[in-house]
Design a protein that fits this description.
The chain is α+β, with helices and mostly antiparallel strands and 124 residues long. The protein contains 1 helix and 11 strands; from the N terminus they run αβββββββββββ. The chain folds into 2 domains: 1-30; 33-123, 3-layer Sandwich (Rieske Iron-sulfur Protein). Strands 2-3-4-9 form a 4-stranded antiparallel β-sheet, with no helix packed on it. Strands 5-6-7-8 form a 4-stranded antiparallel β-sheet, with no helix packed on it. The N and C termini lie far apart (49 Å).
Length: 124
């Protein structure tokens, strides 16, 4: 026989599970967090997880790109002087568009879609 207390507890657990299922797709749709906006310098950027480069070319404007150089697949190593820089052969890419500024790379870095909300940058 189920007591009233057990029924209330089971109902609470079921309700919490339903709430979790309802909230999870919204979080998943938003994509994983890359960074907080305050950690990305204006006129610069950061390399994140060795997979992404997030830049802030002008205050409040954020861009994201693949961190894989299009020349020979090296991971870019720094963001400075308005460019994303590959250490392998010297390729440089624009922090605004990902376009090649200095070769030998011939193709731009792949752009990644992001969403910025409440000081958080997420993949879209």
């Amino acid at each position: 026989m189920i007591t009233r207390r057990a029924l209330i507890i089971r109902g609470g657990v079921t309700g919490a599970g339903a709430l979790f299922l309802w909230a999870s797709p919204a979080e998943a749709a938003a994509g994983p967090v890359l960074s907080k906006t305050r950690t990305i310098p204006v006129g610069g950027g950061k390399i994140l997880r060795g997979k992404y480069v997030v830049t802030q070319p002008t205050k409040g404007t954020f861009r994201a790109f693949s961190a894989v150089c299009t020349h020979q697949g090296c991971t870019v190593a720094s963001v400075s002087g308005g460019t994303i820089n590959c250490p392998c052969h010297g390729s440089k890419f624009s922090i605004t568009t990902g376009a090649v500024v200095n070769g030998p790379a011939k193709r731009a870095l792949a752009r990644r879609r992001i969403r910025v909300s409440k000081g958080v940058i997420r993949l879209a």
